[in-house]
C-alpha cells in the first residue's frame, strides 16, 4: 500500500532532515519533487496544489524562526498535511498517534441500523460486505447481511458463502435469485433479519458497469424506504482518479456518508485515498488490505500518514496482535521462554501459528518504524516458508520437539522426507531455533 509513493517522498525528506541548514530554495525544490510524485501517484491536481501551498507557507515560517532542526520541522509539516488530505483535523494531529481517530459508523440509538453498500461491479462490494459484517460481529453489533442484487448471476449464492465463512446470517438470497423487485426484497429481508434479532443489517446492493439513471433511481428509492444510517461507497483503490469521479457521482446522485477503499494491498498508487476526502469532503471509513475476512481496517488519517512516510504504525501492530493472539497462551509462552529450560519446538510451533494469524509477513513488518518499501523489496518474506517450517516441526516426534539435541543425521533425513523439504532446511531451522533461544535469554 502506497509503496512507491512512500519510497519517493521518504527519500526527499531524508535529504532535508540530513541537512543542518535549510534555505527557502531547498524547501521549494523538495516540494517540487513531492508535487511530481503525488501527481504520478494519481492524486488530483487541485488536492496536490493545495497541499504544496500549505506546506510552503508553514515551512517559510519555520525557517524564519530559525528552528534547531528545520529539516525535521518540514518533514513534520509534510506528514501533518498528508494526514489532513486523508481527513484529519487539527485536533487529531495535536493528539498524536496514541489513539484511533478513524471516523466511526453511526448506529441507530433505538431499533435496527441499516447500512447500504453501493458501488460498481468489480469493486469488491460483496466481499467487503462480509468483511464489514465480521468486524461488526466482533464489536457485538449483531449484524445480518441482505443480498439485494437480483441482476448478477449467483450474487446471492456468493454472499451466502461469504456469510457462512464469517458466521453471519444472510437474508433475501432466495428472493434475489427469483428476481424479486429490489425494494420489496430488502424490506422483507430486513423484517426477517429483525425477527432473527439482527440489530444491524448490511445491504449489498446491485452494481452496474457504470453509473446510470436506473441505478440511482433504485438506490434513491431504497434510501427513502429504509432510512439508512450509513450509505457507503465501495471504491476500487486501484482505479485512481476514476474512484474520485465515482465518489462525486454517487454523492451527487444518492448522498453518501463515507467511502470504503478496497484492494489497497496490491499495486494501488494511493491517489484515490489521498484525493477523495479533499475533493468530496467524504470520510474514508475503512480500507481493504487483503483477501482474508479480517483484512478490513478503519482508516486513521494520522497513523496512515505515518505509514506513507515510512514512520510505521506500532499502535496498529499492537491492535492487530491483541485481536488475533491468545493472550493467555502468549503469557505461557513468554514464561516458558524465559525459564531455565526454555521453549521447545512445540512452543515454537504455537508461536509460529500465532504470528501467521496476524496476516501476511510483509504487512506486519511494514508497520514497524523505519521499514520502507525499498527495504522490503530486498528481503524474502514468503509466507509459504512459514508453512514449510510448520511441516518440518510436525514431522518430528514429541520427544524430538522437546529435545532437539537428539536430532542426529538419520533423524533429520527422516524429518526432511516427511515434510517434503531438503535436509538443509531442517538444519537451518534448528540453527535459527537455537539462536532465538540464546537471544531470548539475553533479553
Explain how this protein is built.
The chain has 443 residues and is an alpha/beta fold. The protein has 3 domains: 3-95, Four Helix Bundle (Hemerythrin (Met), subunit A), CATH 1.20.120.140; 113-309, P-loop containing nucleotide triphosphate hydrolases (Rossmann fold, 3-Layer(aba) Sandwich), CATH 3.40.50; 318-442, Signal recognition particle, SRP54 subunit, M-domain (434 Repressor (Amino-terminal Domain)). It has 22 helices and 8 strands. It has helices spanning 3-17, 24-40, 45-64, 70-85, 90-95, 125-138, 155-166, 173-177, 182-195, 213-226, 241-253, 271-280, 301-308, 314-324, 327-338, 345-357, 361-366, 373-377, 383-394, 398-402, 409-419, 423-442; strands at residues 113-118, 143-148, 170-171, 200-205, 230-236, 258-262, 284-288, 296-298. α6 packs parallel to α7 (155-166) and α9 (182-195) packs parallel to α10 (213-226). It is flat. It starts with a helix and ends with a helix. The model has no long low-confidence stretch (mean pLDDT 81).
| Overall geometric form | flat
Order of helices and strands: HHHHHEHEHEHHEHEHEHEEHHHHHHHHHH
By DSSP (H or I, 4+ residues per run), the number of helices equals 22
Going by CATH, the homologous superfamily of the largest domain would be P-loop containing nucleotide triphosphate hydrolases
Cα distance spanning the termini = 33 Å
Structural class: alpha/beta
CATH class of the largest domain reads: Alpha Beta
Q: Can you give the mean pLDDT?
A: 81
**Biggest sheet features:** 8 strands, mixed
- The counted number of beta strands is 8
Amino acid at each position: 500500500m502506497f509503496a512507491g509513493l512512500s519510497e519517493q517522498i521518504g527519500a526527499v525528506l531524508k535529504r532535508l532532515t540530513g541537512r543542518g541548514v535549510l534555505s527557502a530554495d531547498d524547501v521549494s525544490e523538495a516540494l517540487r519533487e513531492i508535487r511530481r510524485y503525488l501527481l504520478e501517484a494519481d492524486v488530483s491536481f487541485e488536492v496536490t496544489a493545495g497541499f504544496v501551498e500549505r506546506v510552503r507557507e508553514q515551512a517559510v515560517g519555520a525557517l524564519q524562526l530559525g528552528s534547531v532542526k528545520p529539516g525535521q520541522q518540514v518533514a513534520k509539516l509534510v506528514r501533518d498535511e498528508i494526514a489532513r488530505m486523508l481527513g484529519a483535523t487539527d485536533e487529531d494531529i495535536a493528539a498524536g498517534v496514541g489513539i484511533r481517530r478513524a471516523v466511526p459508523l453511526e448506529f441507530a440509538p433505538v431499533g435496527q441500523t441499516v447500512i447500504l453498500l453501493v458501488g460498481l461491479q468489480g469493486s469488491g462490494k460483496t466481499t467487503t460486505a462480509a468483511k464489514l459484517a465480521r468486524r461488526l460481529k466482533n464489536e457485538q453489533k449483531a449484524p445480518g447481511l441482505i443480498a439485494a442484487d437480483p441482476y448478477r448471476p449467483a450474487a446471492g449464492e456468493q454472499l451466502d458463502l461469504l456469510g457462512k465463512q464469517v458466521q453471519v446470517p444472510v437474508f433475501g438470497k432466495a428472493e434475489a435469485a427469483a428476481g424479486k423487485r429490489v425494494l420489496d426484497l430488502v424490506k422483507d429481508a430486513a423484517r426477517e433479519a429483525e425477527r432473527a434479532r439482527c440489530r444491524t443489517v448490511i445491504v449489498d446492493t446491485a452494481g452496474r458497469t457504470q453509473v446510470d439513471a436506473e441505478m440511482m433511481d433504485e438506490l434513491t428509492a431504497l434510501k427513502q424506504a429504509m432510512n439508512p444510517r450509513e450509505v457507503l461507497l465501495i471504491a476500487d483503490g486501484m482505479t485512481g482518479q476514476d474512484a474520485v469521479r465515482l465518489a462525486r457521482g454517487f454523492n451527487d446522485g444518492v448522498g453518501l456518508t463515507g467511502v470504503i477503499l478496497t484492494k489497497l494491498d496490491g499495486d494501488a498508487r494511493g491517489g484515490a485515498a489521498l484525493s477523495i476526502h479533499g475533493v468530496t469532503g467524504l470520510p474514508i471509513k475503512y480500507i481493504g488490505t487483503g483477501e482474508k475476512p479480517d483484512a478490513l481496517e478503519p482508516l486513521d488519517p494520522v497513523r496512515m500518514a505515518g505509514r506513507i512516510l515510512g514512520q510505521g504504525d506500532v499502535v496498529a501492530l499492537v491492535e492487530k496482535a491483541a485481536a488475533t493472539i491468545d493472550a493467555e497462551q502468549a503469557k505461557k509462552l513468554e514464561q516458558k521462554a524465559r525459564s531455565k529450560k526454555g521453549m521447545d519446538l512445540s512452543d515454537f510451533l504455537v508461536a509460529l501459528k500465532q504470528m501467521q494469524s496476524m496476516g501476511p509477513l510483509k504487512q506486519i513488518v511494514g508497520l514497524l518504524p523505519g521499514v520502507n518499501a525499498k527495504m522490503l523489496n530486498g528481503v524474502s518474506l514468503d509466507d509459504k516458508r512459514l508453512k514449510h517450517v510448520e511441516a518440518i516441526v510436525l514431522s518430528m516426534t514429541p520427544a524430538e520437539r522437546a529435545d532437539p539435541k537428539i536430532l542426529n543425521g538419520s533423524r533429520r533425513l527422516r524429518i526432511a522426507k516427511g515434510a517434503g523439504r531438503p535436509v538443509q532446511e531442517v538444519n537451518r531451522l534448528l540453527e535459527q531455533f537455537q539462536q532465538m533461544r540464546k537471544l531470548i535469554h539475553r533479553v
